[in-house]
Amino acid sequence: MSQDPAWLSSVPQEARAFQGRRAGVVSRVLAAAVDLVLLLVVLTCLYLGWAGLLLVTDPVRFHFPTPSRVLILIVGAVVLVGYLTESWTTIGRTYGDRVLGLRVVDRHGHRLRHGRAVLRALFCAVLPIGLLWVAVSDGRNSIQDLVLRTAVIYDWSPHSRTPPR
Amino acid sequence: MRVIPDGEVPGENHAVTENPGPRPQAADAVLALAVLGVRTGLRAGGAVARTVRPVTDVVLRPERWPSKRARELAEAGYRQRQAALEEAVRLYRKLVPIVITDALDQLDLAAVARDVVNDIDLPEIIRISTGSVASESVRDVRVQAIEADDVVARWFGRVLRPWRAA
Predict the structure, then answer these.
(1) How confident is the model over A151-160, as pLDDT tens digits?
(2) What is the mean pLDDT of residues A17-24?
(3) Chain B: residues touching A (Cβ < 8 Å)
(4) How many C-beta neighbours within 10 Å does residue A81 have?
(5) Half-sphere exposure of residue A137, counting CA atoms within 13 Å on the CB side?
(6) How many other CB atoms are there within 10 angstroms of residue A148's CB atom?
(7) A96 near A33, Cβ under 8 Å?
């Protein structure tokens, strides 16, 4: 029987060597793209819900609402920050991270605490291009990682506390 | 079937054209002989049985035996046979648990169970059955993304840190 730790035994054999390594720019950008699609779906649902509410309350004068760009940005940022914060503090990963097998951890390899998660989410919402620093960083850190001392690692296991290498 | 050509008068003696078809073969004669032998044997057996039936009816049925002593002998033998059968069943029921218990005692069931568990890749089964981990296609995407990460990192490493590559 395998001598691997219990958390690693649920990971396929061919992927075990990567577990705990810091994730590169391709994986992280793909995960962010998945999250972006999810954000757009949520915003669309909110819009449709708003339109449905208007239709129910005043069906005679109903027309589809046209929100301003500022409102869209504010609502989008709020939803994004809330989604990222809750994902990182509860299960340590967003849906995009889950698809790509990634996990966001602090410098000790533990799940982020609430304060650090909020700051990181705000940072990601304000400066999303900071993610591209992973490509040039020697330690595969984004600007958010460097400032807040966090890391994104490969972690295919549902539950693990792997310190970043 | 006979074919009558145009202009021929029916009833005249001409060469008859036979249609080709299945014909008897030598093996058919052997088969017929075998069937005949079996039928004859059955008939002979029936005749013998009918002939000896009055005798066998008496000999094979003790209740028809004329001698009372012989009938009592048969009854006693019957009772002894029943008793022996019951004794055999009792012995069987007594011995089987002892044999099985002894066999189980001699087996190291813990070692057997351990070997079986060792041979089963339980984590893999759990992983497949729960579906908590990605499907094959997602796994491929992940692996390819990891490989792409390494390629990008190597490329930027060569460009930005050429002294390290050298």
Answers:
(1) 999 998 876 5
(2) 90
(3) 117-118, 123, 126-127, 132-134, 138-139, 141-143, 145-146, 148-150, 152-153, 156-157, 160-161
(4) 20
(5) 18
(6) 18
(7) yes
In this prediction, residues B37-61 reach a mean pLDDT of 90
B149 and A26 within 8 Å at the Cβ level: the answer is yes
Extract the tokens encoding B102: 């002894």
The per-residue pLDDT for range B27-36, each reduced to its tens digit, is: 899 999 999 9
- Looking from the CA of B26 toward its CB, the CA atoms found within 13 Å total 0
CA–CA distance from B15 to each of B1, B8, B10, B47, B73 (Å)?
Answer: 12, 12, 12, 51, 82
A interface test, pick of B129, B149, B159, B160 with most A CB neighbours within 10 Å: B149
Which residues of chain A have a Cβ shorter than 8 Å from any chain B Cβ? 1-2, 9-12, 14-15, 18, 23-27, 30, 99-101, 135-136, 138, 140, 154, 156, 158
pLDDT digits over B107-145, tens only? Answer: 888 888 888 777 776 666 666 666 555 577 888 889 899
Give me the residue label for tokens 């145009």.
B6
